[in-house]
Amino acid sequence: MKIVGLSGSIVGSKTRTAMNYTMQALEEKYPEIEAELIDLAEYDVQFSDGRNYLEYEGDTGYVTRAIMEADAIIIGTPIFQASIPATLKNIFDLLPVDALRDKVVSMVVTAGSAKHFLIAEQQLKPILGYMKAQIVQTYVFIEEEDFHRKKIINDDVLFRLERMVEDTVVLTETYQSIREAKEAEYDF
């Protein structure tokens, strides 16, 4: 199983901090899983121009292929101006419409206040559903007050991150078992 963590912004540190905690929880609890964190701040990703993702080279090609090859994706996103950042939306635009079919996707959302709690419900989940992802329904929402000096200081947030990691792995294993059973029926 391969799980990609995607830190979906090129500015700020809170989403990256939350993703570091998330990936650490994944690696500690499931060391057998291949895990990779892609922080968009570390890559020079081109804006989508409508090409097939396989035609992109360099960082853009690397990031899109890593996502396409993953069994599950944990998306970390900040909320800016009541929306997901353009850098994250660009990743979705680079991928084919059914890129997330048979992939489990979970979410970590960071925001300045509780006013942005429903952005994941109103913006991110519809995109993921359109791209046919199997969505882990409960996401982790982290507010500004839960951070201090690039650390998460709220134990409840840490507990919810660990739970989300478990749910992501269990759901991915479940869907893999279902697919294998279905494929076995066809005797290919």
From TrEMBL:
PANTHER family: FMN REDUCTASE (NADPH) (PTHR43408). InterPro entries: Flavoprotein-like_sf, FMN_Rdtase-like_dom, NAD(P)H-dep_FMN_reductase. Keywords: Flavoprotein, FMN, Oxidoreductase. This is FMN reductase. Pfam families: FMN_red. The keyword Oxidoreductase applies. GO terms for molecular function: oxidoreductase activity. The keyword Oxidoreductase applies. It comes from Planococcus lenghuensis. It comes from the Bacteria. Residues 1-143 form the NADPH-dependent FMN reductase-like domain.
